[in-house]
Write a structure and sequence with these properties.
By secondary structure, the chain is an alpha/beta fold. The protein has 15 helices and 16 strands. The protein has helices at 12-25, 37-44, 48-60, 111-123, 135-147, 161-172, 187-195, 212-220, 242-253, 291-294, 307-319, 326-338, 343-363, 383-392, 423-435; strands at residues 64-66, 72-74, 95-96, 155-158, 178-182, 199-203, 205-206, 209-210, 225-229, 259-263, 283-289, 301-305, 375-379, 395-396, 398-399, 410-414. The strands form five sheets. The protein has a seven-stranded mixed beta sheet with strand order 4-12-11-10-9-5-6, sandwiched between helices. A three-stranded antiparallel beta sheet has the order 13-16-15, covered by helices on one side. The longest helix has 21 residues, at 343-363. The radius of gyration is 23 Å and the shape is globular. It starts with 11 loop residues before the first helix and ends in an 8-residue tail after the last helix.
Length: 443
């Protein structure tokens, strides 16, 4: 059953660690069955309760799953093997359109804002017991949220979007609960949910966002939370439209106890209006990160939500890191106040590159998606083959497996790395890679 890999340990912690190391190293593969409790207990010379405790830990960590009489097996996408490792190495001379980074040329200079923030800190040092949120940042953030129709709520600051989502999920859910997620969706999020011991249920989406019928089905089946990307959805570029928002709010009102989490990382890099869903359920959270517009290394996101959710998040945050650096918060507030990023110009730059690639692919008979943001999603019949053929042609793209649960194969192309004059060559290479797929007819 386990091939050449022996599970070791006398304590539950040692047994679970042995299995987790094996999964991380590839010695135990996704979907591989584990020994029954009593069989493994006999092999190790321990009480079956010890093995049961180890398996429970592994389930909560998102490493294995148990299905009644069918026993326990390694999850098909175990948390131990992060999707971040499903990537291609980019050799020298190959153009990288896989990384998902913003264009450095569109990011603002940070030195002046940080120098100003540091000088402020020298005059008024932030000490233990001070407020965790910079008042000016909270004021600016709340004003923009109000203008975008996001319901009133307190403001917290977290270390990026994923940190906010993790804290919100942990504030309400317990291991074994189910979370409805977009499919295809953000690979890091699809790693995070099972790592918290939660289950994922996929929700399909089109260019206008999550499909209401899929959301309804997931919530009726018992999903306790729904995570939605409002704009610049990764990897498809979907953006929630006004009609879709109305439909989704209608579904959510029928399930008022659902925890709703909205990710608006596309703020200031897209020119489509926000159609927030917040307020359709009793407990909700809305997060905006500064990463895409101002730089990933800032590691800062603004979070709002209902009073109970934010109270739990801030309380737990106080027991951990305490707060996000007020110097960083002041610097971001200064960048916002000074208009350091021209959102319309940034959106136009990404939109122009994205639309040009979509048009070039369409001319070559290749269907693709990308309504907003910096990514284009291309469905392909043979994902592994397409990635390999494109790499051989000088282009590194992101394998769709990083973003998928049950949706069909595809590849993600990040247009922020494209330089002028490269679009036609990339479109030619993509068309050729699709045309070369086994069993594929004319493009």
């Amino acid at each position: 059953m386990l091939g050449e890999y022996p599970i070791r340990g006398r304590r539950a912690a040692d047994i679970s660690a042995s299995v987790e190391r094996a999964v991380a190293a590839g010695a135990l593969n996704p979907g591989q069955p584990l020994p029954p409790l009593r069989e493994l207990a006999e092999l190790l010379g321990v009480n079956p309760n010890t093995v049961a405790a180890a398996y429970r830990t592994l389930r909560e960590r998102g490493v294995i799953e148990t299905d009644g009489r069918r026993g326990s097996r390694v999850r098909s996408k175990p948390a131990t093997t992060a999707r971040e490792f499903i990537r291609v190495e980019v050799p020298e001379g190959v153009r990288d359109v896989a990384a998902g980074n913003p264009d450095p040329a569109l990011l603002p200079a940070l030195a002046p804002a940080f120098a100003w923030a540091a000088a402020q800190g020298d005059r008024e040092p932030v000490l233990y017991g001070h407020e965790p949120v910079e008042p000016e940042l909270a004021r600016l953030a709340r004003a923009e949220l109000d203008a975008d129709g996001v319901p009133a709520g307190p403001v917290a600051v977290t270390t990026g979007c994923l940190d906010a989502v993790e804290r919100v999920l942990a504030a309400h859910l317990r291991p074994g609960d189910t979370v409805a997620v977009e499919d295809p969706g953000w690979g890091s999020l699809l790693d995070l949910v099972p790592a918290l011991g939660l289950r994922t249920v996929p929700v399909g989406l089109d260019d206008d966002g999550p499909l209401p019928e899929d959301v309804e089905s997931a919530l009726r089946a018992g999903a306790r939370a729904l995570i939605v990307t409002d704009r610049a959805q990764n990897p498809t570029g979907a953006a929630v439209s006004a009609p879709r928002a109305r439909a989704l709010r209608g579904v959510l009102r029928e399930h008022p106890h659902t925890l709703l989490v909205e990710d608006d990382h596309g703020h200031r890099i897209v020119d489509l209006p926000l159609h927030a869903l917040a307020g359709a359920t009793r407990h909700w959270a809305f997060v905006r990160s500064a990463d895409k517009a101002y730089g990933p290394d800032l590691r800062l996101a603004v979070l709002t939500g209902d009073d109970l959710t934010l109270d739990r998040v801030r309380g737990r945050q106080r027991l951990g890191p305490g707060w996000v650096s007020r110097i960083t918060q002041r610097a971001v507030a200064r960048l916002w106040a000074d208009g350091a990023v021209d959102g319309r110009a940034v959106a136009a730059s990404y939109g122009g590159r994205r639309d040009a690639l979509l048009a070039a692919l369409a001319e070559r008979g290749v269907a693709a998606r990308g309504r907003s943001g910096m990514n284009v999603w291309v469905p392909v019949p043979d994902e592994t083959g397409a990635v390999a053929r494109l790499l051989n042609a000088g282009w590194a793209v992101a394998p769709g497996a990083r973003f998928r649960l049950g949706s069909p194969p595809g590849i993600r192309i990040t247009v922020s790395a494209l330089r002028e004059g490269e679009t036609a060559a990339l479109a030619d290479a993509v068309a050729s890679s699709v045309r070369s797929a086994p069993g594929h007819g004319p493009v």
